[in-house]
Automatic annotation (TrEMBL):
Organism from which the protein derives: Flavobacterium pallidum
Keyword Cytoplasm attributed: no
Xref: Pfam families: PorZ_N_b_propeller
Keyword line: Signal
Transmembrane regions listed in the UniProt entry: none
Name of the protein this chain belongs to: ABC transporter substrate-binding protein
Leader sequence segment: 1-19
Stretches assigned to the PorZ N-terminal beta-propeller domain: 44-204
Amino acid sequence: MKYFFILTFSVFFTTFGFAQNDQLWKGYFSYTSIKDLASSPNRIYAASENSIFSKNIATNELKTVNTIDGLPSENISGIYHTNTFNKTLIGYESGLMVVINDADGSILKVVDILNKQLPPNIKKINHFMEFESIVYISCDFGIVQYNLSTLQFGDTYFIGDNGTEIIISQTAVFDGKIYAATRDYGIRRADINNPNLNDFSQWTTITGNGWAGIEAFGDDLFMVTNTGELKRYQNGAFSNIAILPEPPKDMRSEGSRLLVTTATHVFIYNENYALERNLQAVEIDVVNLRFTCAAIVGNGLYLGTESNGVYATGFTAGGAFQNVTPNGPVRNNIFAITATTENLWAAYGDYTADYNPYPLDYYGVSKFSPNGWLNIPYETIHDAIGRDVVSMVRVTANPADENQVFFSSFHSGLLKFQNDEPVALYNQTNTTNGPEGPPGDATYRVDGAAFDQSGNLWVTNSIVRNGLKVLRAGGGWQSFDLQGLYDNVLKLNIGRLVIDKNGTKWMPTRDDGLIAFNENGNIGKSIKSGPDTGNLPIDNVRVATIDNRNQLWIGTTTGLRVLSSVDSFSGDTQMTTRPIVIQEIIDGQPVNIELMSGQFITDIVVDGGNNKWIGTADAGVFHFSSNGEDVLHIFNSSNSPLPSNSINDIEINKTTGEVFFATSKGLVSYKGTAISASDDLKNVLVYPNPVRPEYTGTVKITGLTDKATIKITDIEGSLVYEVVSEGGSIEWDTRAFGKYNVASGVYMIFISTQDGMLTTVKKVMIVR
């Protein structure tokens, strides 16, 4: 484990620049979980989990900013826009702050709060309040000044008793004083012009208890308790305005109106402090809609919600509600994806590391196509099928019919879609030998499925004796008894299967290693840990993937193994796997290192060049050469736009080479180059071309046939690089045989097929 991370560090500097070429990355984020809103005279700003978007009210232009653009991947807790300085401030739960210069889009990451010598769980930024070029930042430990003119931090106020850290919900300036609403220790105030505000003794407590918000509005000061008592403070006295039906989520003044938001209400008070409107969530035709905040821009009211984005409406009751959220998936935490030629399907259900699907997930599914995102909600599926279909954990598209897609539910069975509509749910109640549940349990735990060459759909079924099922191409189900391949049927949790060229099904399990089964002769075998039973590092296998050379790459919760050939299933001896061991020089000495040792591997995908993309539970993505001995890239949330190091699933569009990463915090893709081989050389493409000085990546050559010979020479004919392709593309690092960067100039690229029957010549210009 120690040596593995030394290897990781050694390649960091070569991958960082490559990963930061934004044109290689795309983001497919969800903007539905709204944490906060901000406003300017003509634009509304919305902060979601780890991204923001804004809408120009006059032009309807939508603009998004996410990790592809340089935002951190951490959880956002607040947003503020300063009209005077034309900047947007984003606060994070970690204490990190980002300042976006709206004039040019530049992003400044400010780490002063993050780096404070305080417990990490009390650095959350709760609120921004601007007064005379200073923003007062309410945090879980106190108040921090930030100067918008100099972009520098000022004093920090610890205003608890004896200078202790206390949670500040919100601040306001009123009548020459700064007021702080604390979550547990009342409302405290001090003279705003006092130069010693960092002295806790300069602050006085005007009332006790816990307060969720405070806001100057009109000629008075308004505040709301944690439980929802809305009060006005005037001439040193409190008066009751309203008792809210539930705890407050947000309070702010917007021009001539005061907005108080709860989970199901937005209360709008006019300048005379009269209730102008009580807007209720049930007015919007969405099931279980819950508000988080509200804001005003011009004559429009904007409503932030927990999981449905932002709605725009007018102030008069009965008006229409328009969802102004950017197109995207339902949520960022996507558990499984499947790519076809035209589409990408996503499922949001999940299970724990122990295959526990509870609590159940009541989410729908999504499809991304050239037309954008199509989100099919849970309610639509329920109404079409007539029963619950929950915790959908895998997606399988029919290779013979891209419009036919199956979703595996780890609770409800197998759901069939045709032309984007749910048409059938398969379980024990409506099939013979279909998905079944354990005795006395009404769950039908189906995981990954796969089509064989005859068009039959094979699925795994957990916690039942007949753990392997097939839906025949002509209709009808058949089950296969896996008894003898597992120790305890009640612990038989089977993951996503893969089918090799011989029709053998390879099935990862939690406790029983890798199970292999071929119905021709009903032969079942297994690969487990231990030198005599398969040499896996552990019996908890998460994924098995067949590469272009028919090797089986096996990912476990503690490392990687390779079976040299799937044909070994037909042999008479125990199938045995091997680790990949490479040699590194450490402290001047050669050291053998086991690749991916100790890593929880969540997915392994093979691209058109037979290279391996390996996802992990907490260390990001690793891209290895076909034999695993060369590290091509390491992507994580620190050196790339990857929003999380927790990788749920990886998929590759075999036509375009785009590699999709489904993470716990969002879906992104990387423009890979290893695509499937072409039949000829008619569509060979070289890019970027020209290669400019600021570019730090590689030159890609795509549209190749498999095992094509590529020779690159300078204009005088001197050879600088030669390679044979695996798949439909190659990359050149613009170095002469990996030794030194080639000089500026035009380079000739000579390409020929393996048999020499087809040739083509391309050029690339390199400018240093």
